[in-house]
Write a structure and sequence with these properties.
Length: 154
């Protein structure tokens, strides 16, 4: 058994036993060492985005004082949901190790696979209304950013 995945499982169990959230844990590793560890805290904080992967990324970025985690890897006890996957892309992490897959978590009521389908346009009923308004005015912000002399790209 992989020691980092074992750490992700231990973290998940810790959160589950304290009713912090679902049975999900994540570990971020750099140079063979654990940088951060987190578990799902949706129930503890009432934050629907408090998934283990997102929290592990936030902690690692804070510890490393860097928003770019391209030299890190993430171990997560379950396949990342679309939100966490996007957060992983934003963090520039290059490798994800996951334990259970989205079908496994759907069986216990965490239906990430539905969000995957919605994003791919494979669901008939989208519960989210998405409306594009005031593009021109919002575009002004992008122009201001482009012209900002002290901007830092990420
Ligand atoms: Zn997630």
């Amino acid at each position: 058994m992989d020691k980092f995945m074992q750490a992700a499982i231990d973290e998940a169990r810790e959160g589950m036993e304290h009713n912090h959230g679902g049975p999900f844990g994540a570990i971020i590793v750099r140079d063979g060492k654990i940088v951060s560890r987190s578990h799902n805290e949706v129930l503890l904080t009432n934050d629907p985005t408090a998934h283990a992967e997102v929290l592990a990324i936030r902690k690692a970025s804070e510890i490393l004082e860097n928003f770019d985690l391209s030299d890190c890897e993430i171990y997560t006890s379950s396949q990342p949901c679309p939100m966490c996957l996007a957060a992983i892309y934003w963090s520039r992490i290059k490798k994800v190790y996951f334990g259970t897959n989205k079908e496994d978590v759907a069986v216990i009521g965490f239906d990430d696979s539905r969000f995957y389908k919605l994003i791919r346009g494979e669901e008939d009923k989208n519960p989210l209304e998405i409306v594009n308004i005031d593009r021109k005015e919002c575009l002004g912000l992008l122009r201001e950013w482009e012209e900002k002399s002290d901007k830092k790209m990420y």
